[in-house]
Amino acid sequence: MNTRIENQRTDDEQRVPALRLMAILDRHLALHRHLLQLAYQKTDVLKRGDTDGLMQLIQKEQPAIAAIQQLERERAQLVAAWSGDENPPSLADCLPKIGGEERQKVERLADELLAVIRELQAANELNGQLIRQSLQWVTLMLDQWLPQPPNVTYTAPNQNAAAHERARSLFDSKA
């Protein structure tokens, strides 16, 4: 009978971290889905050229990003304590310690999280491209509206004209 109680205690000791890990992954998933929705909203705002709307969305992202960073610290601490290793193993390394139904739930949550993260990366890449295009357009318009300086000095034939143009630019598109 003592063996049965000890086995039950060992199962519970393994189940509690698994349940905490599932809760952390579930919260990660919810926060990343929230960021994904904000990324889609950003795409619409960027297409409309609504800078005020963009700033509001960026402000909405900040608490979610901070919460994700905190969850990641909690996950790392949980996995490190669970494994007893100084270098926390990955989620895949922990799966053998999780049994049955909990393991299936953790795997499902991890797969869903990975899919949402990939979709978020794609949306952010699109938003980055839209921002770069907007910056290029602004630079083009500034170049069109600003008067061209008269060429009153002699330029050596082998001097790079592009260096002169870069020095004249008021806006760095790589910002």
UniProtKB/TrEMBL annotation:
GO biological processes: bacterial-type flagellum assembly
SUPFAM superfamilies per record: FlgN-like
Record keywords, A-Z: Bacterial flagellum biogenesis
Name the record gives this protein: Flagellar protein FlgN
Species whose genome carries this gene: Geobacillus subterraneus
